[in-house]
TrEMBL record, chain A:
Subunit and partners: Heterodimer of SoxA and SoxX.
Protein name stated in the entry: SoxAX cytochrome complex subunit A
Key words of the record: Electron transport, Heme, Iron, Metal-binding, Periplasm, Signal, Transferase, Transport
Gene (name only): soxA
Subcellular location: Periplasm
Signal peptide: 1-23
EC numbers for this chain: 2.8.5.2
Source organism of this protein record: Marivivens donghaensis
Enzymatic reactions: S-sulfanyl-L-cysteinyl-[SoxY protein] + thiosulfate + 2 Fe(III)-[cytochrome c] = S-(2-sulfodisulfanyl)-L-cysteinyl-[SoxY protein] + 2 Fe(II)-[cytochrome c] + 2 H(+); L-cysteinyl-[SoxY protein] + thiosulfate + 2 Fe(III)-[cytochrome c] = S-sulfosulfanyl-L-cysteinyl-[SoxY protein] + 2 Fe(II)-[cytochrome c] + 2 H(+)
Family statement drawn from the similarity comment of this UniProt entry: Belongs to the SoxA family.
Keyword Magnesium belongs to the record: no
Positions of the Cytochrome c domain: 84-169, 184-277
UniProtKB/TrEMBL annotation, chain B:
The protein, known as: Thiosulfate oxidation carrier complex protein SoxZ
Source organism of this protein record: Marivivens donghaensis
Domain Sulphur oxidation protein SoxZ span(s) in chain numbering: 10-103
UniProt-listed SUPFAM superfamilies: E set domains (SSF81296)
Positions of transmembrane segments: none
Length: 284, 109
């Protein structure tokens, strides 16, 4: 009798330990004790019932990883943001101009920017990701060399722009001239690829919250990008993450910066309409 | 050797006498272990922070030896009891001989 009761207590403890090790999905994200981040929002209309609620990937991480993002001192992604602040004020290229010469202080000049990307650019007649816009600014306005797509300098700058827009509500336009590309991205999202014949939706729409072996599946939202990942100890870009995901379906991947990934980024970003810009976020 | 090495420290601005405070420190550093090889197969030389110390008004609080297995951007969080107002001095020692220092004042009432 005694033994059974004891056993029960031990199992209880194990169950408790297991649930805290996975994630606290009811936690609330407040950064530095002041910036409130929306980690749950009603799904945007275009999802049409496929999801009732959109949730940030932060909710699916362990308590320790969640805590790292709640304080900028503990967030290693902020090291890259600080590097980018130096780059922001450094004059470069044939025009000898810095970002700050046109845009002023990054915190003010870049507020609200991250939340609307990727977006249609009228002059270039293309959908531009944040990285493409940064490179356009560098080549056209500064006369400087392009940065490598998803390279260290680029991701640090994207981190700074995300930091400046932290807490803004993601609001990516999917109508007008961007619609064709958005539809291309949507089709990619629902198309099974690779030897494993998996689409994005198979994991991130139908199975979020479940475990895929040792990994806790999120909805695959990209509102937190660029993301500092503990596995490689650096900021990671959206396209590099897509590439990893497509590779895991055992498919030939698209190239980072390719039109296919730009379309997919546009679509996936729009699935997060209503969530907050978190950047730089911390994930495992 | 290592570029962009910047120490960062967080110490509370004030405390009461005898209070136990939490100190957080981080230094951005690649912490190259010396075990890796570059694209041509040549070993990449070790370059790490090998020692970290913290002193309060000349008295040692913590003295740490770091080994090559420690990850990029080493982070230390520890507690200290503060008997009086003064300054914490933090020192990091790099393999290449560089020494990085930071100081934080604390007012004790």
């Amino acid at each position: 009798m005694m033994k059974t009761a004891l056993k029960g207590a031990v199992y209880g403890l194990i169950a408790l330990a297991a649930s805290t090790a996975v994630a606290d999905e009811s936690a609330e994200l407040v950064i530095n004790g002041e910036t409130e981040i929306v980690t749950r929002a009603d799904a945007p209309a275009h999802l049409d019932g496929a999801l009732s609620e959109v949730t940030s990937g932060w909710l699916y991480r362990s308590d320790e990883t969640q805590a790292m993002q709640m304080d900028d001192f503990d967030n290693p992604g902020m090291l890259a943001v600080e590097d980018a602040m130096v780059a922001w004020g450094t004059a470069e290229g044939t025009e000898n101009k810095s970002c700050a010469d046109c845009h002023g202080a990054a915190e003010e000049g870049m507020a609200g920017v991250r939340a609307t990307y990727p977006k249609w650019n009228d002059n270039a007649e293309e959908v531009r990701t944040l990285a493409m816009q940064i490179n356009a600014c560098r080549t056209e306005n500064m006369g400087a060399e392009e940065w490598k797509y998803d390279g260290g300098d680029m991701l640090a700058m994207e981190g700074l722009i995300s930091y400046a827009g932290r807490g803004d509500t993601i609001n990516v336009a999917i109508d007008g001239p961007a619609q064709a590309m958005w539809e291309q991205g949507r089709d990619m999202y629902y198309t099974r690829t690779g030897q494993l014949e998996l689409s994005c939706a198979n994991c991130h729409e139908q199975n979020y919250g479940n475990m895929i072996r040792a990994d806790h599946l999120s909805q695959g939202q990209i509102n937190g990008f660029p993301t500092y990942r503990l596995k490689n100890a650096k900021l990671n870009g959206v396209h590099s993450r897509f590439k990893g995901c497509v590779r895991d379906t055992r498919a030939e991947t698209y190239a980072v910066g390719s039109e296919d990934f730009i379309a997919l980024e546009l679509y996936v970003a729009s699935r997060g309409n209503g969530l907050s810009v978190e950047g730089p976020s911390v994930r495992n | 050797m290592a570029d962009n090495v910047t120490p960062r420290v967080r110490v509370p601005r004030d405390a009461t006498a005898g209070e136990v405070i939490t100190i957080k420190t981080l230094i951005s550093h690649p912490m190259e272990s010396g075990q890796r090889k570059d694209g041509d197969g040549n070993p990449i030389p070790r370059s790490i922070i090998n020692r970290f110390t913290c002193d309060f008004n000349g008295q040692n609080v913590i003295d740490v030896t770091l080994e090559p297995a420690i990850s990029t951007n080493p982070y230390f969080e520890f507690q200290a009891t503060v008997p009086e107002s003064g300054a914490f001095t933090f020192t990091w020692y790099d393999d290449d001989g560089s020494v990085y220092e930071d100081t934080k004042e604390i007012a004790v009432s």
